[in-house]
Design a protein that fits this description.
Strand content: 15-25%
Distance between the termini: 20 Å
């Protein structure tokens, strides 16, 4: 998200705190990161560090492969962008913005 939007939402530390709180409610073992003012504007992420249950391993591996393939395609492409992938940072950011907008109305 752009830096101005991050400041409007309370800043990186508040966004990270909200992400940690939500993750804890899901019993995730989390690590969060956040930076404002990067060349990509503001970057905030949460990572669940739990082991993937065996029943879901194939689905998670397939999703990781899909994301890596999309990243390679984007880096390798001479022009244009890689298609928007389900669960991608861009899509999750759009969903987050929509949720904040909906909650604000």
């Amino acid at each position: 998200m752009d830096d101005e939007e991050a400041v409007g939402l309370g800043g990186v530390e508040l966004i990270r705190a909200a992400m940690r709180k939500a993750a804890r409610q899901l019993d995730w073992k989390v690590e969060t990161i956040g930076w404002i003012g990067t060349r990509f504007d503001t970057m905030v992420a949460v990572q669940d560090r739990r082991e993937v249950p065996e029943a879901y391993r194939a689905v998670v591996d397939a999703a990781m492969y899909e994301r890596m393939s999309a990243a390679v395609a984007r880096v390798s492409a001479e022009s244009g962008e890689a298609p928007l992938q389900h669960g991608s940072v861009a899509l999750m950011t759009q969903e987050f913005r929509a949720a904040v907008a909906e909650a604000s109305t």
